[in-house]
Amino acid sequence: VNGVQYGNSLTENERIYVSEKLIESITIINKYLNIDFKTLGFSYGARGKAGSIAHYQDANKVLAFNRGWDGALIHELGHAIDYQLGLVSHNIPYEIRKAYRAKLEKHPLLRLKLKYYMCNKEIFARMFEGWVKLNMPDATEYMIFLETDASIPDMTPEVLTWFNNAIKGMVKE
Questions:
Q1: In whole angstroms, what is the distance from residue 62 CA to residue 49 CA?
Q2: Residue predicted with more confidence, 51 or 35
């Protein structure tokens, strides 16, 4: 990777934990995808954004994680991939967005943050989470929240076809 940054509040044990999990995760991801991790930096407890578990900083190519970071790696990597591909998220078809919105509106808590969830970049990152659940059987809980998640678009054939086409150059055969 380009670099790893640790905040002052992280204990030595936390630094060891995130380092080991990051190496394990990159090893798994590299079996399925062509991602140049040398272009990405990772920050744990140093670049926090209030109210979020993690976020992606495209200007610095950094995936930044706050406390409670387990499960956020794939989502933030989805944002990095979207930017690397030239924000393909802006091309998500209307029908896919419409179906996802209908799913969110059925969930009382998610409906309250509809504007956030309906942002194309968020939809893409959540599609990536769904794609990983389907295509990386050895993904760990550190990489992705493995429980059923109402905030992930249904990975219908239409969604999978669009998403596979969007990331086709990154998927290993």
A1: 13
A2: 35
Q: Which residues pair with 57 in a beta bridge?
A: 62
> What value does the mean pLDDT take over residues 29-41?
97
- Which pLDDT tens digit goes with each residue over 128-154? 999 999 999 999 999 998 655 789 999
pLDDT at 16 exceeding the cut of 90: yes
Q: Say what the pLDDT of residue 147 is.
A: 59
Question: What single letter denotes the amino acid at residue 49?
Answer: K
End-to-end Cα spacing for the chain? 23
Using the structure block, give the residue that is written with the tokens 């970071």: 69
Question: For residue 153, what are its two tokens?
Answer: 């678009």
CB 165 within 8 A of CB 124: no
Rounded distance between C-alpha atoms, residue 20 and residue 27, angstroms = 11
Ramachandran area for residue 70 (φ above 0: left; ψ -120 to 50: alpha; else beta)? beta
Alpha-carbon span 101 to 90, nearest angstrom: 16
